[in-house]
Design goal:
mainly alpha, 79% helix, 6 helices, two-stranded antiparallel sheet
């Protein structure tokens, strides 16, 4: 069980690390959203001060930039909320994994201590050896309640007393409850990641629109006799933010894909 215990620690550690990475990127997104909003507001102020005869085309462009920034802000805040919920789900899931291994290990020790817990005997889909530390493997069945009941029926009355049976049944119930909780939480977490991926697609569209608007502002800026430098600064700052959004977006997509892989392993029992 020692190797399995280390593997459970690695599973929990990998999932928690991935979750924290997702939450960190989401918070970075939130910071960028504020910067975009402030940039759009500054652009609107500059556009309002431009001579209407020479800067009429700037007004709809800057207004469009402000509208896109609001759209991104809404999506990013929702994305951040999803990631916070994900971190909570993953934290509870990691605790359930620890408890699952604790109860299954104790159950293996109890079974191995009986007269039937000898080399070659099988209960609940996995071999039991006299060394309880090696009695679990990745192919074990998690519904120990039904398996134990069948195993009890195969024993003679003097091999196991009622107190031992009740203890094993209690451990089996706890193990099954935590395994079911792992599956539910992992499934919920995958759904949250999928929702976050959809929001990233919408953010991607807004990012491309921002880049297009910035290019349009850049094209129209030379026509201004005044405030041209200010609008060029607006363009440079906007494109810089677009680049940062793309960078954070790529990282979040990477972490989300990694998270789905880790969580699906839990659902297929390969990660336990």
């Amino acid at each position: 069980m020692k190797n399995r215990h280390f593997q459970s620690d690695n599973s929990v550690g990998s999932i928690l690390k991935n979750c924290m990475n997702i939450l960190s990127v989401a918070r970075s997104f939130s910071s960028l959203s504020f910067e975009i909003s402030m940039l759009a507001k500054n652009g609107s102020v500059h556009a309002a001060r431009v001579n209407r005869n020479e800067g009429q085309s700037m007004v709809p462009l800057v207004d469009g930039l402000a509208e896109i920034s609001r759209d991104i802000g809404i999506e990013i805040e929702t994305l951040k909320s999803d990631c916070i919920l994900l971190s909570r789900k993953i934290s509870i899931c990691s605790i359930a994994i620890k408890r699952y291994y604790l109860y299954t290990r104790c159950l293996a020790i109890c079974i191995a201590s009986t007269s039937q817990g000898t080399e070659g005997s099988r209960v609940s889909g996995y071999p039991l050896n006299s060394d309880a530390d090696d009695s679990l493997n990745s192919e074990m069945t998690y519904d120990f309640v039904e398996s134990l009941s069948k195993w009890f029926d195969s024993l003679s009355p003097d091999q196991l007393d009622n107190h031992q049976k009740r203890n094993m049944e209690h451990l089996a119930l706890k193990s099954r409850f935590n395994r079911q909780q792992i599956e539910t939480l992992a499934g919920d977490s995958i759904q949250i990641i999928e929702n976050a991926t959809k929001r990233l697609t919408m953010i991607e569209r807004s990012r491309l629109t921002m880049s297009y608007i910035a290019s349009s502002i850049s094209i129209n800026t030379p026509n201004l006799k005044s405030s041209a430098d200010r609008f060029m600064d607006l363009v440079e700052n906007t494109l810089d933010l677009v680049h940062q959004i793309e960078k954070e977006q790529d990282e979040l997509v990477k972490q989300a894909q990694m998270g789905k892989v880790l969580l699906k392993k839990l659902l297929t029992r390969k990660g336990l």
